[in-house]
Design brief:
- By secondary structure, the chain is mainly alpha-helical.
- It has one domain.
- The chain has four helices and no strands.
- α1 runs antiparallel to α2.
- The longest helix has 26 residues.
- It is globular and about 45 Å long.
- The model has no long low-confidence stretch (mean pLDDT 91).
């Protein structure tokens, strides 16, 4: 089975953003951790993020046979970040997403649609 490059890119970005969300926000709920421990643990979690992020961007970019331009990759990554962050917020941090937050996230998702329709990565 031949997996499309765009799908590999998206899956790598989801994995990358999962690691980064934990690196950036997990320590916030760990009240017993000191700042130095929070920084050290976050750095250790962030390393796998880069191991996934770099190939995602290279495989996905038009210069390397992918279908996305740099702006499209960035906008796609931000939308994926919001999805991963929302799951993290509810499942791990046990916080609710406010209606205003959901509306703002919806507007960012609309930006992804506009970006993907607005120009082809091939031209």
């Amino acid at each position: 089975m031949d997996v499309p490059r765009w799908l590999i890119t998206v899956l790598l970005l989801v994995g990358s953003n999962t690691f980064m969300t934990f690196a950036w926000y997990y320590h916030v709920k760990q009240k017993e951790w000191g700042l130095v421990l929070a920084i050290a643990v976050s750095w250790l979690i962030a390393l796998p993020e880069y191991i996934l992020q770099v190939p995602a961007n290279r495989l996905g970019h038009v210069d390397h046979g992918g279908t996305f331009t740099l702006p499209q990759l960035k906008i796609l990554q931000e939308a994926i970040t919001l999805g991963v962050f929302t799951v993290f917020t509810i499942a791990v941090a046990k916080e609710k997403v406010r209606m205003h937050d959901a509306i703002a996230m919806g507007l960012i998702l609309a930006a992804v649609v506009v970006s993907m329709m607005g120009r082809s990565g091939k031209g």
